[in-house]
Amino acid sequence: MARKAAARHSTITDVADAAGVSIKTVSRVFNDEPNVRQATRDRVLAAATALDYHPNVAARSLAGRRTFLIGLAYENPSPNYVVDLQTGALDRLKGERYRLLVLPFEDAVAASGKMQAIARASGLDGIVLAPPLCDDVATVTELEACGLPYTRIGPTSGGSQAPDVVMDDIGAARAVVDHLAGLGHRRIAIVRGDPTHASSTARLEGYRAGLVAHGITPDPCLEVVGAYTFASGYAAGKALLAAAVRPTAIFASNDDMAAGVLNAAHEAGVAVPAALSVVGFDDSNIASVVWPRLTTIHQPIRDMAREATGALLALIEDKAGSAPPQPHLALPFQLVIRGSTARVAEPQA
From CA 42, how far away is CA 28, in angstroms rounded? Predict the structure, then answer.
């Protein structure tokens, strides 16, 4: 796939010329070495800002030299998700000359407008964008403008020619509701994920569509906002179980929140799954270590990261005559049934 040629980057020589100092002086300023007058330091920094110069922390900014370094940018509070994400990328890099630089962000706002500067300073040859950064318009536009190769994991928005790897979040959430409704549950609650993540909206859409398909009217009182964290799942579980009419099943939009719901149920003396069925999403490690073990959606996070990393390598190498990376790859989900769900004692009307 053809990509725009990157604009010429400013060099340390350009900064030295603009500031009227030697290259060594510029280097000393950026290394924060002593014995540089403040007026000189200020002049060098002002010149660097005007030229949009970013020093290469890997000391590999020689013209035309490759760093064989790719970035993995993400914003996700779930440690289980992040581990699978990194493991998948590292699996693909085994035997390759490329190394992985992990770029965590607190939120998409923190990343917006900074990706190009980070890529330059780190000497990245390309970058993989994980949710929700993969849907951040400012970040995608910035990478398109500077011509840096990138791929996306799990985007829900278009507007990009970069390869992406996705999974059907809507269909997966519907499968959860199908499972619970098939067990006789009618009062099914959901703990939503972080509203800034597109996956949260998609899973809510699938949940509602599943209810309607089974003749169940969605109830806003059964929709609680979480944050993809154990603590938010615990708080949501406590709130739902304290209601005058409790749900008989709770679908949490990731396993960390589902574990929090389990903890709230145990504290309240609500037996799982005899009195409450709980379902998670991701099939991360925590799903198999809590008790009872979680029924959940297996999201192939490692495979998604592995495929996105492979597509990025193909973009970077851009070998003549080689097949271009698949522009859009959809991987299947799987409902994994374990001990946290069961049939209701008396199917509700």
Answer: 13
How long is the chain? 349
Asked if the model's pLDDT at residue 103 lies above 70, the reply is yes
What's the CA gap between 29 and 22, in Å, rounded? 11
* Tokens of residue 330, six digits: 């959809």
pLDDT tens, residue by residue, 304-314: 999 999 999 99
What three-state secondary structure class fits 1? coil
DSSP string, 275-328: T-EEEEEE--THHHHSSSPPEEEE--HHHHHHHHHHHHHHHHH--TTPPPPPSE
Separation of alpha carbons 341 and 332, rounded Å: 22
Residue with tokens 């209601």: 243
pLDDT reported for residue 280: 98
Taken in order of first residue, the domains within the chain and their CATH numbers are 69-167+301-318 (3.40.50.2300), 169-299 (3.40.50.2300)
Structure tokens at 269: 């003396």
Distances (CA, A) of 43 to 38, 77, 153: 9, 40, 42
Determine the pLDDT at residue 324.
61
Task: At 24, list the tokens.
Answer: 């060594």
Q: What pTM was computed for the model? A: 0.78
d(CA 191, CA 253): 6
The residue behind tokens 């005899």 is 274
Most confident segment among 148-152, 159-163, 326-330: 148-152
Q: Is 281's pLDDT higher than 90?
A: yes
Torsional sign, CA 107, 109, 113, 117 = negative
Q: What are 211-262's pLDDT values in tens digits? A: 999 999 999 999 999 999 999 999 999 999 999 999 999 999 999 999 999 9
Residue 144, C-beta contacts closer than 8 angstroms, at least 6 positions apart? 4, 160, 161
**Mean pLDDT across the chain:** 88
Helix spans in the chain (H)? 12-19, 23-30, 38-50, 79-93, 108-111, 115-122, 137-146, 169-182, 198-213, 230-241, 255-268, 286-289, 301-317
